Each structure stands twice: as structure tokens, then as C-alpha cells.
Amino acid sequence: MINIAAVKVKNFKIVDFYNAFINPQMKIPPSSIDWHGITDDMVKDKPIAIEVMPEFLKFVSDDPIVGHHIGFDVKMINKELGEFFGCKLENYTIDTMLLYSNAIVRKDTHVSLDYLFDVYNVVCTGRHTALGDALATAEVFNKIIYQANKSFDTVGDLFNIQKEINQNQ
């Protein structure tokens, strides 16, 4: 892990963010650098994961975590948490891909985050960086919620949709 970020959204507005670069204590593979643009020089003087995780956990608190294919991100975070602290994230999660598929198009389809950027006319600055993707995903999520608001009345309904989806996979 070399970068972790999260944004807080309240009333459809981003009100805060957390972003940290992490020294992985190893060389970043060239293919990874090509993907996200984060180089060894950018992380060489940054804290290691064990130092960053408590700050990240404090930021996310017990808030729901939204992301695109969020299960992958949670697995990466839980790997670090388990290794260093013997714990894992217990937060509710909402996957924008599954939410879009089930609440908007109402069919089992897998779509990329870039596809949703196009559908909702969202510009992602810093694509494939943790903060860039988090900011843009928050915007996509807000637009999905706005579009799908006839499908549910409360946040609890959202969790129930996500829970049903997870159980059927």
C-alpha cells in the first residue's frame, strides 16, 4: 500500500478528506508507477503503514465506507490492519458498482468506475490515486443517490440493498 484516502460527505457535499502517502519499504514496481504515477521519490520520506492506519481509522470512525469495488480496498486495508494490529474494518460498505447495477439499471452488470464517470459526467483529477479516485467516487455516489432516490427512503434501505447484493454473490 502506497496511498490511502477517504472523503467525508454530508448533505451531498464533501466536507473533509484524509490523504496519506505510505512508504512501502520496498521499490514500487514500474507497472504500478505507470498505473498511478506515484514514484519511489514521492514516498521515500513518508510514514509506513503502521503509522498511518491509526490516523485513517480515526478519520473513518464508524461511518459507512463507499467505494467502487470497495471489497478490494477493504481487503487491502484489512491486510495491513490484521498484520499490524490484529483487527479489521467493521464499517458498513456500499459499492457504487453494485448500487448502480441494482438501483439504477436493475440488472446484474459490472461497470468500471471510468464508465460511471462518463455516465455522470464526472471529471477525475488524479485518476488511480487514492484521493483522486475517492473524490470522484463521492461525486458519482451522490449522483447515483440523487437518481435512485425513488428506490429507497433511508440510508438503512441503502444498506439493506447492499446486504442483499452481498448475500447473493
Short description:
With 169 residues, the protein is an alpha+beta fold. The protein contains 8 helices and 4 strands; from the N terminus they run E-E-H-H-H-E-H-E-H-H-H-H.
What does this structure look like?
With 169 residues, the protein is an alpha+beta fold. Helix 5 (96-104) runs parallel beside helix 7 (130-148). The chain has a two-stranded antiparallel sheet with strand order 1-2. Strands 3-4 form a two-stranded parallel ribbon. It contains 8 helices and 4 strands. The two termini are 27 Å apart. The longest helix has 19 residues, at 130-148.
Separation of termini?
27 Å
Count of helical regions? 8
Number of strands: 4
Return the string of H and E elements.
Answer: EEHHHEHEHHHH
Mean pLDDT: 90
Largest sheet: 2 strands, antiparallel
Write out key terms for the chains shown:
single chain; 169 residues; alpha+beta; two-stranded antiparallel sheet; two-stranded parallel sheet
List the helices and strands and how they pair.
Blueprint: E1 3-10, E2 13-21, H1 30-36, H2 40-43, H3 49-60, E3 65-67, H4 70-85, E4 93-95, H5 96-104, H6 113-119, H7 130-148, H8 155-167
Parallel strand pairs: 3-4
Antiparallel strand pairs: 1-2
Helix pairs in contact: 5-7, 5-8
